[in-house]
């Protein structure tokens, strides 16, 4: 039996819809979508039937950053250290690594800046909530370890729901 359907007319699976929703969540966290647009696009992604409909939901978003394929072992170790050293030093350790090693490697700079932004967000949360936000530091240690593992693998990691003050 021969089919006359184009690839875009093929029906999508739940896994394909979930991947698009995840991409929308990343775009929302990056500030590329506002809350209303995010809600509308998620609804469109969930109800999409074909690849064309699903592709239209993320068509104007920039593609995901590729996994850093040619990152050296030293760069991966420094990026992992930027996340791990944040646990005892808050934002100071990652900031020092960003300033010292970030000039040599864009990957180290990107990951160290991410760690700085995360720690500054947690610090501001703790100050604004008069110390109650300090409970979030328990979660911070877990996320810092996860980020360090991603960095060791040469992949980029972005903390969710943070202020991105350092670029």
Describe the structure.
This protein is mainly alpha-helical. Helix content is 62%, strand content 0%. The chain has helices at residues 14-30, 35-47, 51-58, 73-84, 86-89, 92-101, 106-128, 136-152. The radius of gyration is 19 Å and the shape is globular. The model has no long low-confidence stretch (mean pLDDT 85).
What attributes does this structure have?
167 residues, mainly alpha, 8 helices, globular
Proportion of strand residues: under 5%
Low-confidence stretches: none
Structural class: mainly alpha
**Quaternary status of these chains?**
single chain
CA distance, first residue to last residue: 54 Å
Average pLDDT across residues? 85
Q: Please describe the biggest sheet, giving its number of strands, its sense, and whether it closes into a barrel.
A: none
Q: What string, H for helix and E for strand, traces the elements in order? A: HHHHHHHH
Overall geometry comes to globular
Helix content: 55-70%
What is the total tally of β strands? 0
**Cα radius of gyration in angstroms:** 19 Å
Give me the number of helical elements: 8
């Amino acid at each position: 039996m021969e089919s006359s359907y184009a690839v875009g007319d093929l029906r999508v699976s739940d896994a394909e819809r979930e991947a698009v929703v995840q991409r929308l969540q990343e775009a929302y966290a990056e500030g590329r979508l506002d809350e209303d647009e995010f809600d509308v696009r998620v609804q469109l992604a969930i109800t999409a039937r074909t690849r064309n409909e699903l592709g239209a939901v993320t068509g104007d978003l920039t593609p995901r950053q590729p996994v850093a394929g040619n990152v050296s072992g030293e760069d991966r170790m420094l990026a992992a250290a930027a996340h791990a050293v944040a646990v005892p030093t808050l934002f100071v350790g990652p900031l020092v690594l960003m300033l010292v090693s970030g000039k040599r490697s864009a990957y180290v700079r990107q990951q160290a800046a991410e760690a700085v932004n995360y720690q500054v967000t947690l610090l501001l949360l703790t100050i604004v909530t008069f110390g109650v936000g300090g409970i979030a530091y328990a979660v911070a240690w877990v996320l810092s370890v996860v980020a360090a593992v991603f960095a060791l693998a040469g992949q980029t990691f972005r903390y969710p729901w943070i202020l991105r003050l350092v670029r």
